[in-house]
Amino acid sequence: MLTGLGLPRFFSLGNLLAILAALTDDQQSQRIMDLIEQRWQDLVGQMPLKICFPALEGQDWQTITGCDPKNIPWSYHNGGNWPVLLWLLVAAEQKTGRTELAHKALQIAAHRLPLDQWPEYYDGRTGRLVGKAARTYQTWTIAGFLVARTLLENPNHLALLSFDADPDVVACTI
Q1: Packed helices 12-20 and 26-38: angle between N→C axes, nearest 10 degrees
Q2: What is the pTM of this model?
Q3: How confident is the model at residue 138, as a pLDDT?
Q4: Does domain 10-160 have CATH number 1.50.10.10?
């Protein structure tokens, strides 16, 4: 999806799941990981991982979110940083052989999440804790961190969360 600026909009969940489900070929998977590495500050920043980048604004925000006030640009589902996505990021990085990125993301989360009491999400523009709006001690945040750490400690566990390429399935071309 292109933004009003002509820049592609990156949806983290869809891209990472496509890699894990083998819906992308090796080249497409590597290009997604290249993009994450090249746009690290935009997509990861101070806390893995933005749910989408850039945030929906203006007419796109009005149309797609229905002017939902909790999803204003760079908040919640509209460009917020969701630590639960860490496990998907680490799994995709591991599947593509990019474990240096996985270690970097996990290090950021390991330092910050316990200090911030395992919040649901962070502000997307700055990566700051949102306060009362970000519920603390979220089970899915803790679980995402633990799964990410376990994947790095035990790479064989990736087979439980991803699929191998099926030669009968053909990746779509764009």
Answers
A1: 140
A2: 0.90
A3: 95
A4: yes
